[in-house]
Amino acid sequence: MSTSPGPARVARRVKGLDDASASVRHAGLVMFGACAVFALSPYGWVFLLVATGLQVLAEMLLASGAWEISFALAPDDRQGQYQGFFGTGAPVARTLGPVVLTTLVLDGGTLGWLLLGGAFAAAGAAMRPAVAWACRPSPPERAAGIWRDAGLPGVCGGGRRVQA
């Protein structure tokens, strides 16, 4: 049995929106670390290997959290629409990525790597408030006293489930 943190081992820890938000937040912090180590790669190949390992870990954390968030927040009758919209993030990143990386990393050097890492960390930190915003009850639901329970303590009705 492998002791490495494989994708299934990382994903197993995500059991609701609270865990998913934490996983995405941790992914942002690990990516910040990876970017900082990538900035050191001109000083030795070992930095490149460590940074790559950190990036792989961050990708596994992100995938685990994002998967749970994308399915948990989508209404059962509109899963396809939500998954389609959620999936547009990757093409946007592939479109903007080369320009951002060229500008920040190639032109900015170490500072550019740190700014890129800071953007990843900020995006990860923004996930919990974004999830809280997404699962808040609509005005008609609030008027009817209906709260959503999405497994996020302190959010979505504080963990209470009230039937519609």
Secondary-structure map with pairings?
Blueprint: H1 7-11, H2 17-38, H3 45-72, H4 79-86, H5 89-125, H6 127-134, H7 139-143
Helix pairs in contact: 2-3, 2-5
Task: Please summarize what this structure is.
It is built from seven helices and no strands. It has 164 residues and is an all-alpha fold.
Defining traits:
164 residues; mainly alpha; 7 helices; elongated
Would you kindly provide a written description of the structure presented here, covering whatever features stand out?
There is one protein chain. By secondary structure, this protein is mostly helical. The protein is built from seven helices and no strands. Helix 2 (17-38) runs antiparallel to helix 3 and helix 2 (17-38) crosses helix 5 (89-125).
